Amino acid sequence: MRANRSLLRRLSWWFAAALLLLYGTGALLGWLYAARTARQFALLTLKSEVETLAAYVRESGRLDAPELTGEEELPLPLWLRVLRDGRVLAAAPGTPAVESIEPRRPDDVVSVSFRRGTPPYLVVRHLVGASQPGVVVEGIGDLTPLERRERRLAGGLALAGLVLIPLAALGGRLLAARALAPVEGLVQAIDRLGPERLDGRLPLPPDAVAEVAVLAGAFNALLARLEESVETMRRFTADASHEIRNPLTVLRSGLEIALRRERSPREYQALLRENLEEVERLHHVVEGLLALARAEPGTPYPLQRERVDLARLVEAALAGFELLAAERSVTFATELAPVSVTGDAALLRLVAFNLIDNALKHGPAGRPLRIALSEAADRVQLVVADEGPGVPETARARLFDRFFRADPQRPGTGGLGLSVVRWVAELHGGSVRLLDEEPGVAFVVDLPRGDTTR
């Protein structure tokens, strides 16, 4: 859970940093706006006072205006004075000795100057003009109260930030922890899974966020695929070991019986032929198992592409079953057209072997098997038919699935034979299907003649 805690810590720090940036930017802009507004209001007030006194002096020519009798206090302490050529003619009581403003141009009516210092002053100069040449009115405002309010505002915003940002960061951490809590539960559920508990699924709390729900759903889908793969592997191993063990048991039993007493050369030859038949059957079973084991989902099978004489291949497969067919009094009714296809000879041999083997096992003794090979246009068809009991309707949907047996009591290639046939046919761009016969069934393999493979 260290990774989750690290993620939680990172989320908390990122949230706090983002909040600090947003709050700091907003507080700074708010403070600048408040300070600028206060100073603008002070400037407008001072200008208004100076303009009023200048109009009075210009109209009356006297220096007894009420503004010169005392100090103004709002919105800041301010004083007014009247000067002529730099000499003070009249001033409000307590007027600070601030140097007079020198206008940029002699004919400027109004001039403004901010004097930094202790205390800082705002000075506004207004030219009286008309019949009072050289006479100006100046207003002096003490900015100390404004700066004091600005500092208090800055301190208040900083204090609010020191309180709000940690609280908000704590709230964000709690929200992140709550959002990540389902992840911690998922990790604990994953830890409880094992090879024997692949059927388990990750629980998803109803209040989980969408991203966690997607993660849990994807992992559950992965578990489902993994469970299916492991179960397939188990069935594959069990059926493969069963099918390999059966021929080996037959071989061992036959050899043990043969060694119990001396036998004639003819008996030994018959025994060797029987054992050779079992070895051949075991060889084809192992070939089918290896082919299926190499066929990994999602990866192309290394198909050997060559021109294959399909009629000769079927004849060779039939020759391998002559002894078994003779024992069961089964004959082969063949109609093999001389056709060839482009494909993998070893895999196509498995098709013929498995279909004939399946027909011999399920067909009745003493009845013929029909094997036909024909061509039409650019397609080739291989038909293997028997006169057995057929396939139940309930088993047809899964007849070509791996490891499936319509009758588990009957011997066979572990439910792999027909699945190998379908796999090889589809690998060559063809198909296999089941047809009803009266009696029995027929398997029809359809293949392209050319080099169409997938």
Assign an overall shape: rod-shaped
Largest sheet: 5 strands, antiparallel
Number of strands: 12
| Average pLDDT over all residues | 79
Q: What structural class is derived from the secondary structure elements?
A: alpha+beta
Key structural traits:
454 residues, alpha+beta, five-stranded antiparallel sheet, five-stranded mixed sheet, 8 helices, 12 strands
Describe this structure in words.
The radius of gyration is 51 Å and the shape is rod-shaped. With 454 residues, it is an alpha+beta fold. The longest helix is centred in the N-terminal third of the chain and has 59 residues, at 2-60. The strands form 3 sheets. The chain has a 5-stranded antiparallel beta sheet. The protein has a 5-stranded mixed beta sheet with strand order 7-9-10-12-11. The protein has a two-stranded antiparallel sheet with strand order 6-8. The chain has helices at residues 2-60, 144-192, 210-258, 265-294, 310-319, 322-327, 345-362, 417-427; strands at residues 78-84, 87-91, 110-115, 121-129, 132-142, 306-309, 332-336, 340-343, 369-376, 379-385, 431-436, 441-448. Helix 1 packs antiparallel against helix 2 (144-192), helix 3 (210-258) runs antiparallel to helix 4 and helix 4 crosses helix 7. It contains 8 helices and 12 strands. Helices cover 51% and strands 18% of the residues.
